[in-house]
Amino acid sequence: MKHSAYNKKATILIVDDQVVNRATIKLVLKEGSYNFIEAENGEEALHKAISYHPDIILMDAVMPVMDGFEATREIRKIEEIQRTPILMITSLDHKEDKLRAIEAGVNDFISKPFDKTELKVRCKSYVEISNLNKKYTLATINPTTHLPNKNALIKELVTEEEERSLFLIKIDNFEENENFYGSTIVEHLELKITDELSKMAKKLGNHILYHISSGKYAILLDSKENITNVEAKHFCKTVIENLKNRKISAGEYFFDISLTLSFATGSRTLYNDANAVLSSALMQKKEFLLASDSIDKLKKNLQENLTMIKKIKIALKEDKMVPYFQPIYNNKTNEIRRYEALIRLIDEENAVLSPGRFLDTAKRAKFYQNITKVLVNKVIEKIEESGCEISINLSSLDIEDEEMRTFLLEKLEQNRTAARKMIFELLEDKETQDYDIVKAFILEAKNYGVKIAIDDFGSGFSNFIRILEFGPDIIKIDGSLIETVTTSLNSKNMVETIKVFADKIGAKTVAEFVSSEEIFDMVNKIGIDYSQGYYISKPQREVQQVLMAAEA
To answer: Deepest in the core among 68, 106, 385, 403, taking most CB within 10 A?
Structure first.
């Protein structure tokens, strides 16, 4: 175990069988504010180096029990201290002796009798080198388990030419455990898991176990270790069974462990490949996944995502994020004076991309709010130009974000006339975190004359009490009910129930996905106030064009 008494000052281990020589070195270096440790032979030096982790070692060459050459070789075998600078202070001046010392791992030489100034300068220089080595070690070693970390793995693979195999292992819900139990308990848990993985990994042959990050490990096999997919699957199952079917103790607590694994083969991009497969396994809620089963698809998806991100960036830069407008037909007056704005992306080839093609990617790449802002600005312009009512879809991602809320309310304040023609369609979102924020926003928006619509009502997450709290002006009935309203009695009954509910709270109803005359007639028979869908018109670029198409 490493002693902590020498942590503040640089520590020098002086190894010499002569007491007077050790005393002389200490006297020369006393002004350097060093801590000194002494050993009288190589064997004692080895033990003290392991215990104290000195910053540098001043090693004599010729000593009893174990000489300086052998001691240096042994130190270079021990990972924790193998990067420690070793200076050999010796009267040996034969070329063969120096070559022997260099082969053993000595960094530099100081000849006896030594020059005081030279000794001071060299010690200071090598202490600085030692500090750099320690920073490197800290950057590549996990402080809890002392296993090499992600940096070490990447460094190992960066110049790799031969194909190797890699397992990634992630402890599920590890972050939640850390937040709940605290880092001390979880560090004990990691040590236990590390011990278990170390035992199981021995079955794989020559390998290195890495502690990538909190709750995440890697096992890199030697290039000579060939493993088949069948063997990889067997190992994954073994790890899962051994850890899942037992409770692991950490302090006074016992943990049920569940984990997810991935396996890949390759060279320089091996970690990225295995990590992509691991992410895919987590998304699919699979206990393990092999790259051979999914890597081609993952790479294709990655390339498609990168291509789409590029398209999004270009469209935002070149003003090619544009709203298309789908009319909302008034079943009572047979007029179209209301539209829903639906964002479209015009790509470099002038192809028009619908939101399903790019919005999910935009959310992951943090462009979603940029797109919402573009849509809001253009809808305000279109309202001022046409005088029509236009609705915009807003998700909880928009409303719960303080910056976006501020932007929306500022736009309403700056465009009070247009605000009275705006409709905010709230997308039902089961991931809404703070309904109080949503309710407060609705109230503020209504103060500007904005109408509130609940979109996709009846899609499965509808909460009638929540709807009452929001006080909507409009309820848009989900397309899945409208599409089957003429063929399914359950759908028809649900639509009629929603209509009765809307009338009770004073809200207008809109039937979405009205795609045929038969459906149009049925929603009118039920008494739905508005119809929207391809039977009325597809979304088009200009409001005027939509009106003409509907009249035709």
So the answer is: 68
* 8 A C-beta contact, residue 207 and residue 220: yes
* Selection from 65, 21, 28 nearest residue 45 by Cα: 65
3-state SS, residue 287: coil
Mapped to the 3 state alphabet, what secondary structure does 316-385 carry? HHCCCEEEEEEEEEECCCCEEEEEEEEEEEECCCCCEECHHHHHHHHHHCCCHHHHHHHHHHHHHHHHHH
| Contact criterion met (CB below 8 Å) for 421 and 379 | no
276: CB partners within 8 A, 6+ apart: 295, 298, 299, 302
Tell me how crowded residue 307 is: count the other CB atoms within 10 A of its CB.
12
Nearest 5°: the CA angle 225, 229, 232 is 65
SS3 assignment, position 161: coil
Residue 64 preceded by cis peptide, ω within 30: no
pLDDT tens digits, residue range 101-120? Answer: 888 899 888 888 888 888 88
DSSP label at residue 224: T
Per DSSP, the three-state class of 162 is coil
Contact 240/257 with Cβ under 8 angstroms? Answer: no
Q: Which residues contact 456 (CB under 8 A, 6 or more apart)?
A: 427, 428, 476, 478, 479, 512
Residue among 375, 447, 379 at smallest CA distance from 418: 379
211 vs 222: CA distance, rounded Å: 17
pLDDT, average across residues 288-295:
78
Going from the N-terminus, what domains does the chain have, and what CATH number goes with each? 11-140 (3.40.50.2300), 150-300 (3.30.70.270), 319-551 (3.20.20.450)
Q: Which 3-state string (H, E, C) describes 386-409? A: HCCEEEEEECHHHHCCHHHHHHHH
